[in-house]
Write a structure and sequence with these properties.
The protein has one domain. The chain is built from 12 helices and 12 strands. A hairpin with a 6-residue loop joins strand 4 and strand 5. The model has no long low-confidence stretch (mean pLDDT 91). Helix 8 packs across helix 12. It has 381 residues and is an alpha+beta fold. Strands 1, 2, 3, 6, 7, 10, 11 and 12 form an 8-stranded antiparallel sheet that branches. Helix content is 39%, strand content 20%. The structure holds zinc ion (ZN). The site of zinc ion has 6 residues, from helix 6.
Length: 381
């Protein structure tokens, strides 16, 4: 049997077992609203109506500094007539991707002679562009995936070392191609907008002044013209809950579980993470559908209106999200409301996590091969 099918057959029952633990008796219906990726197929490169809507609550466990581009320490949005702090999805998604990479590095190191070697065989069998190089990198323990500036060939020139282009992080969250990864770009299949705080800023954002001591004089004295010794930060208070929705497009079962693992393993968000930013994520509701169902904005507006600008606690946020998800799911959709899901994901054993990541990596390689087939012959029947 070719190694691809053999690996697939080995991973399938393990993946099934993990998925059944998490999704229970709704698993078989959920599968009908996901995309199977057994073999490369150029049609898999095309978008299809398969969207998993994941409702997420982010609970601040310490003070947060949510800075975005610009001068302010936090960004405000108006929801249902209240000014509330918000976190843009770019921040949340970057944290998800880092969480996924952390899991992948660990998986990679522990399975170098097992699943990783088998994935390297699959790369060759799939005939991916640069298959030899990719397989060698995987097999030799040299796989890394990050975006980093590096010294160019000419002096003073700075180039960017691109993401690897062939791991589940790249094939799910996207990457800019450049030379590596086949010379094409892959768009993120995880989409989202803003996570809204369930509390008017006036009630959950505090201004705090810190001093930066001059190390030479051990005082706050700085010479004229130098930066002042005092600085002020706007901090979002612990206990503040943010709600939002992310949409995952065309995932396989393993890819979806990888995203859920990433979301539930986000541990810090925002700036100055050495001192601030500890969070805990919750996934109270998932709507499997053909389309995007609902928005974080509507969910937040509903809750803020009911509680006159909050603050809403975690319990109210989880109930509010589940209640909202019920109103947007149609009879053709599948709603899974399981408030402990993120905790269960955080408690998965290494064996279970390995099963998910190996299967997700295999699906990612098949998806990549499908894209390359499509690029080679976009108009073929
Ligand atoms: Zn990668």
């Amino acid at each position: 049997m070719p190694s691809l099918d053999e690996l697939r057959a080995e991973l399938a029952p393990m993946l099934e077992e993990v998925a059944a633990k998490l999704l229970g008796d709704k698993l078989s219906r959920a599968k009908g609203l996901l995309v199977e990726k057994p073999r490369p197929d150029r049609r898999l490169a095309l978008p299809r109506p398969r969207t998993v809507n994941i409702y997420v609550a982010i609970e601040a466990l310490s003070e947060l500094v949510i800075r975005h581009e610009g001068r302010d320490d936090f960004v405000e949005f108006e929801v249902a007539g209240y000014r509330v702090p918000g976190i843009l999805n770019t921040k949340v998604q970057a944290a998800e991707r880092r969480a996924l990479l952390r899991l992948l590095y660990d998986f990679y190191d522990r399975n170098l002679n097992g699943a990783v070697a088998r994935l390297a065989d699959a790369v060759k069998e799939l005939g991916l562009q640069g298959a030899e190089r990719i397989a060698e990198k995987l097999r030799g323990g040299g796989w890394r995936c990050y975006l980093a500036p590096k010294q160019g060939r000419r002096q003073g020139e700075e180039t960017v070392e691109a993401y690897c282009g062939f791991c589940p992080g790249c094939m799910i969250y996207g990457y800019a191609g450049m030379d590596e990864g086949g010379g094409y770009n892959v768009k993120s299949r995880v989409e989202g907008d803003v996570f809204y705080g369930l509390c008017a800023s006036s009630r959950c954002v505090v201004q705090r002044t810190f001093n930066a001591v001059n190390d030479a004089t051990k005082t706050t004295f700085y010479e004229e013209g130098e930066t002042g010794a005092l600085y002020t930060l706007s901090l979002i208070e612990p206990g503040t809950v943010f709600v939002g929705k992310i949409a995952v497009r065309d995932p396989s079962l393993a890819e979806l579980l990888a995203v859920l693992l990433a979301v539930s393993n986000v541990e810090r968000i925002g700036a100055r993470q050495t001192h601030f930013g500890r969070v805990k994520t919750h996934i109270p509701a998932i709507v499997f559908s053909r389309f995007e169902r609902g928005t974080g904005y509507e969910a937040a507006a509903r809750m803020l209106r009911e509680k006159s600008g909050g603050p809403l606690g975690l319990e109210e946020a989880l109930q509010g999200l589940t209640g909202y998800a019920e109103t947007v799911a149609t009879s053709d959709d599948l709603l899974i409301a399981s408030r402990g899901l993120a905790d269960e994901l955080r408690r998965l054993s290494l064996r279970d996590i390995d099963a998910v990541l190996a299967a997700a990596w295999l699906d990612s390689l098949v998806f990549k091969a499908s894209i390359e087939q499509f690029i080679a012959a976009p108009r073929r029947g």
